[in-house]
Amino acid sequence: MMRNIYNAIGFRIRKALRFRRPGMVLPNEAKKNLFEYASGDRRLALSAREEELRKVYKLDPLFHASSRYIYRDNLYWLEGLERCFDGVTLAKSAEFKIVDVGSNNFHYAFALARFFETATAAQHLDMCGYEIDGHVVYADLHSRADYAAAYLAQIRRGRYVVADFGLSTESGADVATMFFPFLTKDALLWWGLPIDCFSPQALLLRAIACVKPGGFLVVWNQTDEEADQLDGLVSGARLVNRVRLKSDIVDYGEATADRVGSVFRMPFPEGSQRG
Which domains are delineated in the chain? Predict the structure, then answer.
């Protein structure tokens, strides 16, 4: 009860102040010994995998302007998306729209854009991230929104909207993504939001509604139990793939052991042409 009251007060203050500070410069760290936490053959394999991902997804701009943690996290997102869409057809398209729900500070924006850009050969990528609590302020006195703007500047595209996605009118998305949405009140409270922001089914249904026929909803969950709960909340979409997201390409690999990625496809209208 007290945590909810504390969260509600903090959330309302952040929402009212809408704190932003100009001059955000993303820190860069050398990437030598990027996988020093691994040993022997495993370290060599991870280094080879990093080189492969960097080449395929043109990650040099991120490689030269990111912390080690952020760079490895983007590698993790790329691996996870590859697994999610393994065996799932993504049609080639000149234009492609992504809507990301619950973007935090959008530190994975580079990976998200590069994956779908590469997979679909899109010449124009429209990417929008929604975050209800985008004015959280970090120790360096920059907000989530400040960081998101800096991450998006690296790929020179995309939007970051500080708003409740459940109230949005987004439509026409080829893919909607939700990475680790709050499916329990305890998780929501732990991350600083009040209970009145808890509406997982409404959020999921709004995400489904924003995707065009034949498009995809991608959801990552922390556990099998959450993935099972997800199935009970999602309607109007067909599960086409479910994969494990464990990887030691990040230094917190053990914490990824139970993670699950799910891909749902939106139905085509009866009698329509399939892509």
Answer: 2-265 (3.40.50.150)
